[in-house]
From TrEMBL:
Active-site residue list: 116 (pros-phosphohistidine intermediate)
Name of protein: Nucleoside diphosphate kinase
Lineage: Bacteria, Pseudomonadati, Spirochaetota, Spirochaetia, Spirochaetales
Entry keyword annotation includes Transmembrane helix: no
Chief localisation class: cytoplasm
Gene encoding the protein: ndk
Length: 149
């Protein structure tokens, strides 16, 4: 089933200059990039995005971190996109993230997590709508993908 997943490369990925490597890993899984935006998010947008964490002790630090430098907001689409992306991204805690996952290979500390990915198709749609207007999303499918994937 085709799904949409919102992915955000956070300031740590931007500052460490590993954005291209991360995008390459996602592309190699055959997912389609349908929207991308380099942006400096506002505290208000960060609070909306992470609203489910508002009462947690790390919330203020998380908002400060994601608003400290530009982020790369993206929308990816594909069959079972969310589950595939979550597996590729790995566990939130770098100590629990397996080698070969993005967090397992690149994350150093939970508080400085380098990537966010939607945890469900419903979250993917909600998060996408926070960062992108409908006309900014360009769905497409490579009609010849079966020949090279």
């Amino acid at each position: 089933m085709t799904e949409r997943c919102f992915v955000m490369l956070k300031p740590g990925a931007m500052n460490r200059r590993i954005v291209g490597e991360i995008i390459n890993r996602i592309e190699r899984k055959g997912l389609n990039l349908t929207a991308v935006k380099l942006m400096k998010i506002t505290p208000e947008l960060a609070q909306q995005h992470y609203a489910e964490h508002i009462k947690k002790s790390f919330f203020k630090d998380l908002v400060t971190y994601v608003t400290s430098a530009p982020v790369l907001a993206m929308v990816w689409e594909g069959d079972n996109c969310v589950a595939l992306m979550r597996k590729l991204v790995g566990a939130t805690n770098p100590a629990e993230a397996l080698p070969g996952t993005i967090r397992g290979d690149y994350c150093i500390h939970t508080d400085l997590n380098i990537i966010h990915a939607s945890d469900s198709p419903k979250s993917g749609e909600r998060e996408t709508s926070l960062f992108f207007k409908p006309e900014e999303i360009i769905p497409w499918q490579d009609e010849h993908a079966h020949k090279w994937i």
